[in-house]
Each structure stands twice: as structure tokens, then as C-alpha cells.
Amino acid sequence: MAALRSLPLRSFTRPAATPLLRRQVHQRVPLPYDLEQGLSPFLSPNALKTIAVDWQQGVLSRLNQLVQGTDAENLSVLQTLKHTATNPTQSLAFNYASEALNNSFFLSTLSPTPTAPTPSSSFSQSLLRSPLKSFPSLISHFSSHVSGLHPSSGAYIWLVTDQGGNLGVLGTYAGGTPLVHQRRQVAGESTVLGEVIPEVVASEGIEASEGEWQTLPPSQASQRKASGGRSGSTSHLLDNMSPLAGVGAQGDRVGKAIHPLLCLSVHPHCYLEDYGVWGREEYVRQWWANVDWKKVEESFAGFTKN
After folding, report:
1. pTM, whole model, 2 decimals?
2. CA gap 63, 82 in Å, rounded
3. Number of domains composing the chain
4. 37, 207, 208, 225: least surrounded by Cβ within 10 Å?
């Protein structure tokens, strides 16, 4: 019997890595607080897991599938949002990137040990000078904005400000976000809760220079909603709480750009676990107990100081 012929070792050598294997894949990163502890009294551990793990990972997985093989596959979530904002053929990728960013912002303004509002902060002083004049009135006004939504509405409700310190409540729907507008970013962080950006890959994407980031012109909020559902209506706190198309609708009385301070997701999957099908009102009421007002105050001061 003939001896078996030995094959050269190189026949089994693993092929060298190709650029495809280095493709950016968005993955969740840990929350800044303990998932297993939940956010009492607002969210149980299971409810928090649904929002921060199950939902966020599902959004990112679908985003990964959509951008694979496209010029956006090596971009971060934020860069993808900017890159697809003006391209109607990539609207679905925009929507998923927007959802990941919005959900991240919502989670980032929460804390298991939140700080109470500081009466002497510039944010508190600005609120006192507004028609609302108090935190209970702000809570009531914000909650009323949520109550006006359809019971099954998937929306984010935002507290926003302009550079003059004027406050407003903004609703965004169907992939809308005040964080980015036509490749411009509002928030200062380029990483969201839900993405890991390898240095070698991130450097190959579109550069996101903070010097180029601007805020959303509020006069264009309703226009974006009409053209693609990417923004909603704003309720301005300086006009006796009447709904307006944008914070800038009062002309010189307010600024021309808005900045998000905090955000609440009112998607049904957020409250079904703890509050039931018709528990949205109680969900909103409990949310205030875990808002990290220190972050809100720092964000307000940083944006309005100039």
C-alpha cells in the first residue's frame, strides 16, 4: 500500500484577513449603572433590560445589516446618521441610527441615585423666570405633552433650550431626532450607548469634527417632519404653553437653535413590563424620580454660557 502523501503545511494556512473582516460592527456597551439593579422606582431590572439590551441590540443589529457593503459600513452610529440624513434612499438606515442615538440619550440622563435640581443653578433660575415658574409646573406641562399622544405612539419627548436659556418641549417621531440635522450634531459625545468604535476602523470613516457640529434650527423642525418625519412639534414655554412649530417661532424673543437637555421614550415596549398596556401615565410620573438633574444643569450651563 502506497504511503499517504504528506501535504505542504501552507495548504492549511488561514488566508490573510481582508478589509471586509475589519468592517465596523455596532455593539452594545455597558450602561453607566448596574443593569441588574434596575432604576427604582422607574424601571425594574427586566424592563431596563428590554430597553437597554433587547431593544438597543435589535436596533443595532438591523443597522449593521442595512449598512453592510455600503459606504456607511465603517462609520459610527453618529457618523451614519450624519451621512444618511439627506439621502432618501438610505432613510431606513437613518431611522435605525436615529433610534439608537435617541434611546442612548434617554438612558444617559437617568440615574439610580439622581441628584435633585439645584435652586441656584442657571437652569433653575431660567425656569423661575419663565411662565411656568416652578418644577411642578414643568412636570405638569411635560406630562401633558405626552398625554396628547396616541396611545400606541412610538415617540421621544425632549426638554430643549436655546442659547438664550428659553425652554421648550419637543416631540420626535418615526426616526426623528433633534441631535443631528443634515450631518450636523447637537450633542457633544460621539459615542452612544450601543456602539464600540475600534480606533483602526473609526479612523477610516468620515471625520466628525466638533467644530463643525451645530444645533437644529427650530424653524426647520416642522419642515423635517413633513419631508421625512425626522422632527416633531415644539411647545414653547414662553408663550403660555401654546404649541408652536418651533422654538424660534417667536422671532427675536428666542434663539435660532435648540439643544436637548433630557429625553423620555414613550414607546410601548418601555412601559409594558412594569406598567401594563394602559400604564403610560404612571410610567411618565415615575420617570421624574430618576432624572439626573445634575447632567441637565451641566448641559444647560454649557450650552447657554456663551
Report:
1. 0.73
2. 14
3. 1
4. 207
